[in-house]
UniProtKB/TrEMBL annotation:
<dbReference type="Pfam" id="PF12833">
    <property type="entry name" value="HTH_18"/>
</dbReference>
<dbReference type="InterPro" id="IPR018062">
    <property type="entry name" value="HTH_AraC-typ_CS"/>
</dbReference>
<keyword id="KW-0804">Transcription</keyword>
<dbReference type="InterPro" id="IPR018060">
    <property type="entry name" value="HTH_AraC"/>
</dbReference>
<protein>
    <submittedName>
        <fullName>Helix-turn-helix domain-containing protein</fullName>
    </submittedName>
</protein>
<keyword id="KW-0805">Transcription regulation</keyword>
<dbReference type="InterPro" id="IPR053142">
    <property type="entry name" value="PchR_regulatory_protein"/>
</dbReference>
<keyword id="KW-0238">DNA-binding</keyword>
<feature type="domain" description="HTH araC/xylS-type">
    <location>
        <begin position="236"/>
        <end position="333"/>
    </location>
</feature>
<dbReference type="GO" id="GO:0043565">
    <property type="term" value="F:sequence-specific DNA binding"/>
</dbReference>
<dbReference type="InterPro" id="IPR009057">
    <property type="entry name" value="Homeodomain-like_sf"/>
</dbReference>
<dbReference type="GO" id="GO:0003700">
    <property type="term" value="F:DNA-binding transcription factor activity"/>
</dbReference>
Amino acid sequence: MCCACRSLVRIRKAEGGGAVTDRLDELYRPQIEQFGITLEEAGDALTGAVSDERARARVVVYRLKGLCVVTSHRIEVRSDMAFHERSVLGLCVCTLSADSLSLCPVAQPNRAQRAGNVAVFGHVDDPQRCVLRAGDVHDAVSVTFLPEWFSRLEAREQRSALELIDEPGSACEAELACVLDRCLRSMTPLFGGRLLDGASALRGAETAVRTAIAWFEERSRAERAAGTREQARLVRAAERLVAMRMDEMLTLDELARALLTSRTRLCAVFRQETGESLGAYIRRSKMERARQLLERGGLSVSEVARGVGYPRVSSFTVAFERAFGMPPSAIGK
């Protein structure tokens, strides 16, 4: 079954499983309620804020034509808190701070920017749980369309959008990231834009998602022309899984089983596509993430070690020194 067909089956199940309104609510209400934020109408937007011992947060939400939600927030975390997020089938384009990108279901770049990290991914019904750390700053603007909206697109764009939902999420780079970051930030007063009426917000949201679909189509054409489409998808899936299971000592065999392939094929494809062994990529990703956490401050070396899947601080210290030529205790001093 092709990606587009699989997505259509999942969409029909979603349509039968609950009202559109309920699914739109799931895109923002559970997250906002965890901070005790009450939303109030401000024109065609919903806005809210809270400041307490856990966090200082501001939120702006647009619910558009029953098929799209645009959310923007700035959350300054004051004390560690558990956080959970329930995703809904759909297509999301977002711009994020580095702290938020680390929680996003995409392969992580080598060095995230403090702000303006752009990601594109399909929401799936897979609850995520994490801990927000004191000192984190979670800035984000996201546009999420439910799959029903895709019926408004021409056949080619609709097919591409359905395929993109099934793709491993990606962090965008260079010019595309700049274009989408500007587009998304212009839609909210939290990051230099302004409050919009519903029609203007919908136009901005559609521009963002159509830009992402066009980028996906161009990338897919290039990969098909090179004969590397399936290999590239497997590599992106592996990178995403490594990012999402960063706090585990994930073995190559476990990774291959999760991706429904053999260890031999996975390792061969990864090296062919990236020029790096999969084991080296996992180690490098963990060390880059550890360095980011240490540079940000607020966590002990042992907490950082556990956060990147090293139960023993001594093993983590050896790996860190091998990667950067200095002990983890030297970072941030």
